[in-house]
Amino acid sequence: MKDEKTGFGVAALVLGIIGVVLSFVPIINNVAFFLGALAVIFAIVCFVKKKSVGVAVASIILGIAAIVTTLVMQAATAKAINEVADSFSDTMSNLSGENTDKILENSVDVTFGQFEITKDEFFDSYKLPVTVRNKGDKQASFSVSVEAVDANGVRIEDDTLYVNDLNAGQSQNFDAFTLITSDTAEKMKTAEFKVLSVSQY
User: Fold this and answer.
1) 167-186, pLDDT tens digit by residue?
2) CA 169 to CA 12: how far, in whole Å?
């Protein structure tokens, strides 16, 4: 019986040591949690039988350390994974235009001028001056979709502006709606111009 009781102490100590070592390794530390728990249980058996008390104390410390370290490491890993997932989700939302309101609030200003019709003897030309300013703190590129709507909110026409490598605080001017028909141009005179969506990349 003496060997059996001493065996519990040795087993507890070995399990505690292995548990502590494995508790620092992501995924594998799931095993470390159970090893730590077993180390504590075996150490308690040693206390109850009053054998290998010194080894039992060390085993309990190691077992608890394995359990706590495992929980801390798993929490840190889960947090890191969530941050990466959130960052990826935000990036995809920025690319798809789903974050238009957020991008307009934090990253870019879009300003519309007056719609212009220039007539000459051969053909008429049309344009809506649009200024895009990067109000973020780093270089960025944008895809800005704009629309013209009539008094009833019905879309007359839409256009997309591609803004590449705009530095922080920098502005760039564009002409939108340059390729429209004369009938559409007439409607544009009284149209309201809006940002339809913005993608950032």
Assistant:
1) 999 999 999 999 999 899 99
2) 63
